[in-house]
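Cross-posting from the modeling subforum.

Setting up a comparison between two proteins and wanted a second pair of eyes on the formatting. Protein 1 (sequence, then structure tokens):
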Amino acid sequence: KQSFKTLDVFALERGELLNCMISIDKRVSGTLGQGGGHHHAQGGRASRTQAATFVLAGTAFIDEKTIPSKGRLLVFRVNAKDCKLELVHEVVHQGSIQQLETARENHKYLLMGANNQVLLYSLNLKHGGQFDLRFHDSKICGQFVQVLKVVEDQVIVGDIMNGVMMVDIKEKRHDQVSLTEGPCSSQINIWVNEVIVMSRARILVVDKQSNIFIMERCLEPKNEIEKFKLRTVAQINFGEEVATAILGSFKLSSRSLDQPQGRDLKLGEAAKEQALPQQEDEGGQIQEQPMRKRRKMNDEQIHYLQAKSTLQLEKQAMQTETNLKIVNEQLR
């Protein structure tokens, strides 16, 4: 019989709600004293790189105002040996912290969505495990940041009013870093629930009105219009609101007459490839595909998302049942 055991608990303050949480494995630079390890250099000390696991959480304090006026960024170190969470850093910020994302190798930068702002920090781990969070820049993006995604040096921002926008991370001299206006925006007023990065040029966007969009930007624009336009290349209405989604693949055993029994179909990868109504030729030029194939793409996309939603609902039901068992055991 499988069960979950609570190893550690961190209590939030009164009126504080948890909005988002991410886990990262960040390398820490440390030193070994002479005799403290199998290898040591001249002078009695040798450097090594250690990996530490951190959990970053964003919260909001609920008050009588329409938009939360205060939130906290909590940084925990995961002590795997003692199975404990150690609070190593805390930042109180004006506004609700509803999105967290990291950028660059070894999670060099931390991006935080707070109300209608995107904030940029650098994450530094010093000798002895000291945690340093340095603020660099902030940028107002729309009305209320709902989603943050990172593709290389670009930040995709999903807003509750202004659709999708892009912001660039620009590194300058003397360790100066800034957020600048990105190459394009969706230019449609939708409430974004989720953004899935499909490639460097294409994203899948889910809105509150049950719509699913595939948006594309031109990587080599020929004019200013192409440069700043994020155009919609496909759209379907799912029939019900999708609150969140993930991009992946799963195997489904097909037992139909036209397929051998036991054959596995990677629907996730197939949908990812078929969900592009355009393709590039050898010269990198985009070629339009016929409408008949575009309609086929929409059907495959619907079937894929329906199958994924069913799996997610089953997983949520199992998790709910497990949580109820834990509560009953604690009450006893």
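Protein 2 (same layout):
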Amino acid sequence: MDQTQAVRGRPGSHIRKTGTGNTMPTILIVDDQSESRTTLTELAHTFQHQMRVEAFLNPHEAIQWLTWHAADLVITRYDLPEITGVEFIRRVRELPNCAHLPLIILTELNDKYARYSALDAGATDSLMEPIDHVECRVRCRNLLTQFSQHKIIRDRNHWLEKQVSEATSAVRIREQETLLRLAKAGEYRDEETGNHVIRMAKYARLIAEGLDCHARDCENHPLEAGRGP
């Protein structure tokens, strides 16, 4: 079960509900209307067995929270204090790691302009008020599932990139060591030739650095890299 702590204050403060774990999905609700915010908060806890809900009255504080925390779904209403829900969505999309964050906007039943504007600004979906609880629950569950799959794919890609980078570095090091040993082996038969090869590698690296070549290009002179500074 979730451990829930509610902190109520003046407009501009927020109600915070904190779960026991760090892996449960987090839903961010931005709604300055107390009754609607309470309804959404209670409904959000039915989306999955365990949910963490952060409910804000003030959109600026919600944006500040997103700057330092991760959410899995955001629900905001169109009519917000100080800025509209459309502007809120635009600002959220500009935050790091929020490009694919699911965003739902609540609009009046016949306000097509608000829905179109929100979708154009980056909203993932829209719901009309009064809220149909069944529709809201199904849509939010679907978005949470999609975002969870997105994070799995993203993390897998990051892991693969790391593995490729490490493997490439290992191959480069082995190549450098092999060529350096070949040069050293040449010294046993002809010391002048071995030293000459190493000098040429030094010259090549200096020329590359003088031409402002990329650091990786400079490292492509393995004899110099293998000998160290």
